[in-house]
Structure prediction request, 946 residues.
Amino acid sequence: MLEMIHGILALSTFGAIMDASGHFALPKLLGMSWMLPDQASTLAPDVDNLYLFLVGLTVFFTVLISGAIIYFFIKYRRRSNSEIPELIHGSVLLETTWSVIPLLISLFIFAWGAKIYLEQYTVPNDALDIYVVGKQWMWKFQHPEGQREINELHIPIGKKIRFVMATEDVIHSFYIPAFRMKEDIVPGPNRYSTVWAEATQTGTFHIFCAEYCGTSHSGMIGWVTVMNNKDYEAWLAGGAAGGSMAERGAALFQQLGCITCHHSDGMGLAPKLEGVYGTVQMLEGDKTVLADDSYVRESILSPTAKIVRGYKPLMPPFQGIVSEEQLQQLIAYVKSIGPAQAASPAGAGKAAATSPAPRPPIMSTGAPETVSPQSVQGTPGKQPAQDQQTAKPKGAKR
Amino acid sequence: MSLTATLPAANAAAQTNGEPLNYLNNGHGIRSWLLTKDHKRIAILYLISVSIFFVIGGIFALLVRINLLSPNGLFEPDTYNRIFTAHGIVMVFFFLVPAVPAILGNFLLPIMIGAKDMAFPKINLLSWYCYIIGAAFALTALVAGGVDTGWTFYTPYSTTYSNSNVLLTGIGIFIVGFSSILTGINFIVTVHTMRAPGMTWFRLPLFVWAHYATALVIMLGTPVLAITVALMALERIAHVGIFDPALGGDPVLFQHMFWFYSHPAVYIMVLPAMGVVSELIANMSRKRIFGYKIVAMSSLAIAVFGFLVWGHHLFVATQSVYLGIIFSFLSYVVAIPSAIKVFNWTATLFKGSISFDTPMLYGLGFIGLFLIGGMTGLFTAALGLDVHITDTYFVVAHFHYVMVGGSLMGFLGGMHLWWGKITGRMYPESWARAAMVIQFIGFNLTFFPQFLLGYLGMPRRYASYPPEFQVLHVLSTAGATILGIGLLITIIYFIWSLKKGQRAPANPWGAAGLEWHTSSPPPTENFLVAPVVTWEAYDFTQTEPKAQ
Prediction:
């Protein structure tokens, strides 16, 4: 109760609504925090603000309408069985009022929701990649450094993380309530689902599969552990047998015989792959395509879908030959020999794995986007600061 | 004017051995029912069969709630998946879609416009047989082990991975769709061609307007469902690649096609109930619905805009962000006509003569629950917020407030208002009021905690769940039990009243509308003297005074 009074008092100055770390503290002050899951990402407070606004709006209209009904009910209760009240046809003024006001409120909510959505789905350039594979009924994760996890995921605090996701079977949906983040993973040779988040709180939070996927759908759950940077570095240093993703991809590149056609000198039967990732490729039929993850994936699984100009459709499809995880390793390799890394002789080294390749912002997912030649040059990727301390750990939860 | 004076006398003349000749006693034996072309008898056939499915669907609902009492679930996950799928399929396709239109619409629409029957009585009967054949397939599938895809049948799970009776159920849904289509055809043609002299379009009761709008949605939407189900079957049997990417198809295409029907289907379920509520509010407060024309047109607006919002089910389904923004915008547009209806119903009460009888309680229950259902629709249509709450219990709670709080409340309210008209007997008023209050409390206790669960992140269709969600799940199950008891009371007194209820007068409520100008139950031809309408809709000076 005391907490509530404090909360109401705090409302009088807007500044007091924000707590020390700049987060929205109204629900906590009103004793409503039990209604909300942990706010553990940069976007979570934005989503909660919209939610709480709508809760308030719902309460307002519910009180307004039910108040009116109860008042009318008492005031105009039937007093005699034969009474026939006077006829009222309507009122243009009233009708207009209660059409226009809800419309304006609706448009306001629409714009607010769309703004958050655009943030949620505009994947930043400088994100760390985590590769996710959903299968009936587990989550598999790969870190670029080579660590692999099942139903457990470790990520650093205060860094933008891009999740590049594929499924081995049916549709799954990667959902972390504490991050207010969810995206379906749809099977198909030409798409990765991507979504991003930046954790603001250390601790352990639920991972759920949110799209019904068969018998053990409710068992397809896991935990994401957000660590501060020091702990995360220590955890990464725990090492990964078999090297980084790009190193494994390089090994696969040999094993699967890709190298027999994709010569690094460009003289092979297939285009050379050095310096390709993140750039725009010219295709047969005067089309162009951005060489992003989805394009590389499609080129491996169904190579004849898009033919690079000047080459013949000779490559066999690798659908069913490479697993989703191997595919992601191959992509990590192709990325490691992209333009940003091509200069460094190490090529497939660890350095390549930790510094993401240049990548124009990718809107949502779906089929590889075809872009106009005007936007050919890839935007240079920003190196993420290694010791970012912007987010304040608020103590581990659970 | 002359009509009201002559009708009771004419009815009295038709007395046969003490009881007036009516559609119930005009013909006996099973053949007279199974081969009937009387829209009222077909409505009764629907009432019986749809009620059976309501009870089946309700039992599955209770099983769902029982399972969720424990975080580990009481049933095997596979069993639970089949239970919630059965609940969804039975309730959506075999209860909610036909409930109001096929029972109340069939019974009342011709009477309300002063017609003797539907335009195509044989097609009307055929529609019931489609329902029964479709139901037989679905029941067979259920008895043979059920389906585990959820009522949404998302691909490629349904076409490639599921080992349950997808095909059999699909055939059932395909056939029952034709039952809706045939009813829809009948409504449209009947309203266009069979209106009594003087019954102009803007003298139609709002119930008729709502059913006309619904029929349009049914006619345009249901064929798409049939096509979608047929394609799904084709892929499952013949491995034609339409939806499964392994065969060259696109799973999101299925979602677009499915929701192109299934979102408008929400309006198939709720528009007729809105029509009922207009009648409940008007008749029980003896007021013309405030802004009659706007309420009528809002039904049509909902029908049209309802077709343009299906993509709001795909905000996290890898649909383009810009498409998402367009669908979100359109979803807010479709909210406006629903809001207008709520405001107009409320304004109708102003200076009315408000009765506290059960039909009115249901009408107000509808407004309250539909208001929350509609307001929470603003949450789910908000793109950035929907990312968090889609596929959680928030959505489950939202659509149950619309479907149960809206459609079921409307249906039950209509059943109480017209029970005397349909059966010739009145239900017991005090039992009915008590049952309504019990249902209202039980309903809110069941579904309100689910909003909280959903925002906390509890995904839907989970056979087991993390223990921190248990308290809210137990509350919800407690509510479902209370709701179940309330509904059981209603079923019992309705059956009891068939023999023991008071005889219903022609117009027990002092209500307006042509159905109250004929006896309860009406004669086979609906009116002994063909009505001529000289008054506006909801003109309460044209009614017989309430029988004392």
About this structure: The longest strand of chain A covers residues 128-135. Chain A touches chain B through 91 residues (CB under 8 Å). Chain A has a mean pLDDT of 78.
